[in-house]
Amino acid sequence: MYKLIFFVPESTVEPVKAAIFKAGAGHQGDYDQCAWQAKGEGQFRPLKGSQPYIGKQNQLERVVEYRVETLVDSECVMAVIEALKQAHPYEEPAYEVIKLEAF
Predict the structure, then answer these.
(1) Residues 32, 21 contacting (CB under 8 angstroms)
(2) I need a surface site. Which of 63, 66, 87, 95 has the fewest CB within 10 A?
């Protein structure tokens, strides 16, 4: 089992969650589409060679984003990561995958 954590602009949080849920994320016991999310502010500066979805090269950008956390079974973790990358509007989405231990 893994925990997937990713950051996504407010305007696309629901479509991105729908894509990862369709790929198998968010199952916990007899429940599906389980996630925790919190609104915050992300920042980045697109460098030369980037093609930013939001902002302009060499200018610091601040964006209202959500941090989304969900569980992913090991059988579908690669499919979920691929779904995240395909659905996410950023060229390089920020995400983490953490392996969980059962106690």
Answers:
(1) yes
(2) 95
pTM for the full predicted model: 0.92
Bridge partners (DSSP) of residue 25 are none
Give the C-alpha separation, 13 to 93, whole Å. 12
> Looking at domain 2-99, which CATH architecture does it have?
2-Layer Sandwich (3.30)
Beta carbons within 10 angstroms of residue 71's beta carbon: 15
Q: What is the mean pLDDT of residues 32-51?
A: 96
Lowest mean pLDDT among 5-9, 28-32, 50-54: 50-54
What gap in Å lies between CA 50 and CA 58, rounded to an integer? 10
Dihedrals phi, psi of 28, to nearest 5 degrees: -145, 110
Give dist(CA 31, CA 45) in Å, integer.
39
- Domain layout of the chain by residue ranges: 2-99
